[in-house]
Amino acid sequence: xxxxxxxxxxxxxxxxxxxxxxxxxxxxxxxxxxxxxxxxxxxxxxxxxxxxxxxxxxxxxxxxxxxxxxxxxxxxxxxxxxxxxxxxxxxxxxxxxxxxxxxxxxxxxxxxxxxxxxxxxxxxxxxxxxxxxxxxxxxxxxxxxxxxxxxxxxxxxxxxxxxxxxxxxxxxxxxxxxxxxxxxxxxxxx
Length: 190
What we know:
The chain has helices at 2-22, 112-118, 125-153, 171-189, and strands at residues 27-35, 45-50, 56-60, 66-72, 75-82, 89-95, 101-102, 105-107. The chain is α/β, with parallel strands linked by helices. The chain folds into 2 domains: 24-110, Sandwich (Immunoglobulin-like); 122-189, no CATH class. The strands form 2 sheets. Strands 1, 4, 7 and 8 form a 4-stranded mixed sheet that branches.
């Protein structure tokens, strides 16, 4: 009997200590993200990052502009809110143990120069614009090639059936080609 009693007391003590050791002290953060006029902004990416550890959590605001970060370890944090077309809003805060915090953020509309600068595009001279347009041209060529291959697979453009014979290049065509190449080279040189 005495042995059973000791085993029961030992088990109860273990359960009490085990649950208290497993309990973690956490905090939470809630808030709303709005524009300068106070209108709710849905779809904003809110990132909470601890400045001392590698803890990082990301949520997206709902249709009312609200966000909620639950069970966050206490500490010093930086919170940022990002949405295309708006300036990034950020704030620093300290979360305390078992103390829910509320932080509302306001976002300003970004100007065109800030939006371009935010994406790392440099538009200086013809070389800057050429760098901006080259992915567009490459994407267009890829789509055109894919369309041509799909049309050939469906029977359009078989040799000898639907292709018209190409006329030979005239002197005027050759001069136009040389002139256009020279214009592009001069534009890129500047």
